[in-house]
Amino acid sequence: MDTDTAESxxxxxxxxxxxxxxVSQVKPHKKRTAKSYALHFLVKISVTALVLAVIFRFIAGIxxxxxxxxxxxxxDGEFCLTYRLADLKQGTRKAKPC
Length: 98
Description:
Elements: H1 2-13, H2 19-25, H3 34-59, E1 60-64, E2 79-83
Antiparallel strand pairs: 1-2
């Protein structure tokens, strides 16, 4: 009867694995080559460029102020960062790209 219980415990839990066998079965990591680093870098650069292009095309804009119409705040030749999704209110000026 002792053998029956021992066999039923083994069948439920599965065989006990040897630690040395599991360590030797682990595959070593492949070394990354210069080509894979370059590809990874180019993917990061292209994703960043795509995100910035979308942001500056649809959400924000960069313009140069060519007049002194807003003199105390913005002077001639300064960069203006505009938010394109804002609602226009009476009295605001619309920035025009060059």
